[in-house]
Write a structure and sequence with these properties.
The complex is a heterodimer of chains A (about 260) and B (about 325). Chain A has about 260 residues and is an alpha/beta fold. Helices cover about 40% and strands about 25% of the residues of chain A. In chain A, helix 3 crosses helix 5 (about 115-135), helix 5 (about 115-135) packs across helix 6 (about 150-165) and helix 7 runs parallel beside helix 8 (about 210-215). Chain B has 13 helices and four strands. Chain B has helices at about 1-20, 25-50, 55-75, 80-100, 105-125, 150-170, 175-185, 185-190, 195-225, 235-245, 250-265, 275-290, 300-315, and strands at about 135, 140, 145, 225. A two-stranded antiparallel ribbon of chain B has the order 1-4. In chain B, strands 2-3 form a two-stranded antiparallel sheet. The chains are: A alpha/beta (about 260), B mainly alpha (about 325). The interface of A and B includes residues 71 and 74 of A.
Chain lengths: ~260, ~325
């Protein structure tokens, strides 16, 4: 579904991603792990077209995405969340999600100026679908609350709801579990598994939190200093000596 | 809810003024209306989309000179010429946005500043615009009647302003307004959700130009004379100041700001020489004390309940 072929990203002399290949298949949760600075977030930014790979290709559904503007990549079925959350803080939760639905429920300027039924119907439909998405993430209670006032864990979930609004085929999650409490992580795992199993979504999951990665991933790719270390199932990764040396260390046994 | 109440208030003032106000006051109320309509374009561009333009006077100039020239040289009646000139202003605004590849804050501010200068010097140096002397605005004729009485001009100007302000208000509360506000808050999140930043921002600039051109054309009827000194960087900055003082998130702010900038100099006419100083001192104070503009006085209730809620929340946490 999503394929990175020998992607290299250089910022001046710094090599952030060095010859990484990766494929995310339809219907899987594919985790991307590695220590800080391993190039994980950079890969999400490359896929979404914020950075252009210095070398290599990024292919989504057998068509290249590199070099396209971000909004067109998004419309092709890729959606993301952000490491430090990038919500529209002045908007209510439901308005945040409606931004993601804008393309789906478009109406012309004239239709708004003249108050035509088209405008009324589409705004109502967008709001309705936004509320459904909030329900799916179990945050419908906070629909009319300003996003900026929500606690951290709910903000992360709101970002996922908003990303789903664009009806993506592949969801890119940048550290969705960072800073969450234990029960929130359990709940997040349930939501992500549900998205995969019931909605057929593929997920590329960047995270440090082993309680998420090891519990729900179908496959795991390990990066270290921008280089690919290993790809495999959770148990293969846990027992891979290179991975243990590079990253997991003694913690692997406890994860 | 405040929005609807405010609309009732403005429409009541506009409708009652011809019966209650003297000629001088009526004229000034008309000027407030057209000025507010011009500024509402900026409200959409700056307050909603977060972009700064120092060219609103240039679009006002295109609207007013355009309509007058269309009438003088092609015989197009003013009431048709003004919308046509406003459309031309919109196309120019769209082109400016389209050519200015990086529609980000500082770049757009500088490009519009340069554009403002170009328009001003073009007007001064062309023969067709009357050069530095300017042009007299002909009277509007409709079905053989000449509409040049103060009352007729008031009715036309206020109607056009109301249409402009109402349209901008609707656009702010539409998916376009929502997308532009989203881009302003987090541009990276909005584009990742499929927002076409460039076309949305170009559309915002074109919209503000249409509002400026259209309301500017009707303001020309009120002023009856086009003097190039009305279309300078200074007037463009005044429009920004009006928006900031009144409040830049809604058209009601534009109306309140315009009223202050039209009426306060009248009250302080003895201090003419210090007027710019007084007004911009006021702007600075407003930015510090009331960053959301005078219009935010009306949402004191909301803020109070928000404050109570946050205190309540803290107690429970």
């Amino acid at each position: 579904m999503l394929e990175l072929r020998n992607v290299v990203v250089r910022f001046g002399g710094l090599v952030a991603v060095n010859d990484v290949s990766l494929d995310v298949q339809a219907g899987e949760i594919h985790a991307l792990i590695g220590p800080n600075g391993a190039g994980k977030s950079t890969i999400i930014n490359v896929v979404m077209g914020l950075y252009r790979p210095t070398e290599g290709d990024c292919i989504f559904q057998s068509e290249p995405v590199s070099g396209q503007p971000t909004h067109l990549i998004a419309r092709r079925g890729l959606a993301r969340t952000f490491q430090n959350t990038e919500l529209f803080t002045d908007f209510t939760a439901v308005e945040n999600v409606m931004v993601g639905l804008d393309h789906e429920y478009g109406y012309g300027i004239a239709s708004r100026l003249l108050g035509l039924p088209d405008w009324r119907r589409k705004e109502a439909a967008a709001r309705h679908e936004a509320l459904e998405l909030l329900k799916k993430l179990r945050i419908e209670k906070f629909a009319e609350q300003k996003a900026g006032t929500l606690p951290f864990g709910l903000r992360r979930r709101l970002e996922i709801a908003r990303a789903l609004a664009t009806r993506p085929k592949l969801l890119l999650l940048d550290e969705p579990a960072a800073g969450l409490r234990h029960h929130e992580i359990i709940e997040l795992n349930g939501i992500l598994e549900d998205l995969r199993d019931r909605h057929g979504l593929a997920i590329l999951l960047v995270d440090h939190v082993m309680k998420v990665v090891m519990a729900i991933s179908n496959r795991v790719t390990v990066l270290n200093f921008g280089r690919h270390v290993a790809t495999g199932t959770v148990s293969e990764i846990k027992n891979n000596p290179d991975v243990i040396a590079a990253y997991l260390g003694g913690a692997a046994g406890h994860a | 809810m405040w929005g609807n109440l405010a609309w009732v208030l403005w429409l009541a003032i506009a409708a009652l003024a011809p019966f209650l106000a003297g000629q001088y006051l009526l004229y000034n109320i008309g000027i407030v209306a057209t000025t507010a309509a011009i500024v509402s374009g900026l409200t959409f561009l700056s307050g909603v989309a977060g972009l700064i333009s120092i060219a609103q006077s240039a679009f006002v100039a295109i609207g007013s000179y355009g309509a007058v020239l269309l009438q003088m040289h092609l015989g197009i009646p003013l009431l048709i010429g003004i919308p046509v000139a406003a459309a031309i202003a919109g196309v120019v605004g769209w082109l400016l946005g389209f050519l200015c590849l990086r529609l980000d804050g500082h770049y757009l501010a500088l490009v519009t500043l340069a554009f403002m200068g170009i328009v001003h010097y073009t007007i001064i140096n062309l023969d067709i615009t009357g050069g530095a002397v300017g042009l007299a605005v002909p009277s509007v004729t409709l079905f053989g009647f000449t509409l040049d009485s103060p009352m007729a001009i008031y009715v036309m100007a206020v109607t056009a302003s109301a249409i402009t302000l109402w349209s901008i208000d609707r656009l702010i509360h539409s998916r376009y307004g929502r997308m532009l506000r989203a881009l302003r808050q987090s541009d990276i999140a909005a584009v990742s959700l499929g927002a076409d930043r460039r076309s949305l921002r170009t559309m915002a600039l074109a919209t503000s130009a249409v509002a400026g051109g259209f309301a500017g054309g009707f303001q020309a009827l009120q002023l009856t004379y086009l003097d190039p000194q009305q279309f300078t960087i200074v007037t463009a900055v005044f429009y920004i100041a009006i928006m900031v003082v009144g409040g830049m998130r809604s058209v009601h702010g534009a109306i309140i700001g315009a009223a202050i900038f039209v009426f306060v100099p009248g009250f302080l006419s003895g201090l003419e020489h210090y007027m710019a100083f007084i007004l911009f001192f006021f702007v600075t104070v407003m930015i510090v004390v009331m960053p959301d503009g005078l219009v935010s006085i009306f949402s004191v209730g909301d803020r109070l309940s928000g404050w109570m809620a946050s205190r309540h929340g803290r107690k429970n946490a």
